[in-house]
Amino acid sequence: MIFEIIRSEGLSHNSYFLASGGEAAVVDPRRDVDVYLELAEKNSVNIRYIFETHRNEDYTIGSVELARYVDAEILHGAHLDFEYGTAVVEGDTFRLGNLELEVLETPGHTYESISVAVRDTTVSDECLMVFTGDVLFAGETGRVDFFGPEKIPETAGLLYDSIHEKIIPLGDHVVVCPAHGAGSVCGADIRDMDTTTVGYERLTNPYLQMGRDEFTEHKISERLYTPPYFRRMEENNLRGAPVENPNLEALPVPEFRELLAESAQVVDVRNPTSFSSGHIPGSLNIWQDGFAAFAGYFLNYDDPVLVVDDGRGVESVRRSLIRLGYDNMAGYLAGGFPSWYMAGLEFNAIRSMSVHELRELEGDIFLLDVRKITDRERFHIEGSEHIWVGDLPDNVDMIPEKDVVIYCDSGYKSTIAASILESHGFSTTTVLGGIGAWLRAGYPVVEV
């Protein structure tokens, strides 16, 4: 048996490659599919099945793209009218050499969610592993809020039953292969583990210790962010995304400026200190390693995307744009930001301050906390107001006409916020090191 986990950093997405007897299956592929083709070639196997555990919300699935290159059947749950592929139902089985793959209908996260149980029939009829999609994670369970708050009692109950009636009975020994790891927005607090087991989750996962009513109440009270780009992902993954993987081309300053004048959106992926020192007016800052996690909150799907990179190259940014469905890539600035200022063009800068300066600061300012609400509720700086950075574009009118001082965990999200507010005419200052530095300096916080 050949088993590989393919991780998509930033989105914390896991897809899987499974093979036996010269045939392979891919579970929940990402849209840049070269990795699966390379694995198939490396292992001299043919991809025959592509399983989708559900209509994914946080990335564009690559099933249609992968099926362009291989003779494979796309398989997904029957309780949603997909415009491509084949519907499967409880008990359907598929062979890969010595392996038997069985479909389990496990609704809750979505109504059409399925899990795929794997057995090596030459060894035992017992289940070996199960691909759970967004049903069960390491230390967490899937979110159930996508159909509106009025549906949560129903979907939470479905998820509870799926876990306790379909997954747990497979046996404590069974390896659990979830679709997401730590940091994904598809769960509140997923552990940093690639895989887990049914038994380990049964013993350690707090949500598996709850009864059905308690579990439902927990899901009703759960507060999770839903990035606006999810709507596009749901559409792409229902209809099938366009089968194209565009490139980001290097653009000299004159071409870059021309596109900028035509309402292109500029995202600068340098680190916060570099961006704050100087940047193209109106550009959005999302540091490169955080790009996949945050781009979908702020970039629209209509205007072309221009990139200013940090010297590490734009391949990871291009792949993130592909996975998030941003096909309207205009290009990146050849030579990076230095080519802009060396051309004698105007640029902006963002002020920053230390936590010591913030501690001594006097005057009429607006202190803005842009961390997640769950982090703020643990502790925050006295006198600060809160708007999660992902919600900031829709809540700019809540910011008074004052000097705005922004803090987050360490300084990365605060610079995103500063770049957004700058484009709306605000005067901003970021706190270097954020609340982490504030705590290490021994300054007090309000604990809730």
TrEMBL record:
Gene Ontology MF, one: metal ion binding
InterPro entries (UniProt xref): Metallo-B-lactamas (IPR001279), Mito_Persulfide_Diox (IPR051682), POD-like_MBL-fold (IPR044528), Rhodanese-like_dom (IPR001763), Rhodanese-like_dom_sf (IPR036873), RibonucZ/Hydroxyglut_hydro (IPR036866)
Record's keyword annotation contains Chaperone: no
An individual GO BP term: glutathione metabolic process
Keywords recorded for this protein, A-Z: Hydrolase, Metal-binding
SUPFAM superfamilies linked: Metallo-hydrolase/oxidoreductase, Rhodanese/Cell cycle control phosphatase
Record domain Rhodanese: where: 260-349, 361-447
PANTHER family linked to this entry: PERSULFIDE DIOXYGENASE ETHE1, PERSULFIDE DIOXYGENASE ETHE1, MITOCHONDRIAL
Name of this protein: Predicted hydrolase
Organism field: Methanothermobacter marburgensis (strain ATCC BAA-927 / DSM 2133 / JCM 14651 / NBRC 100331 / OCM 82 / Marburg)
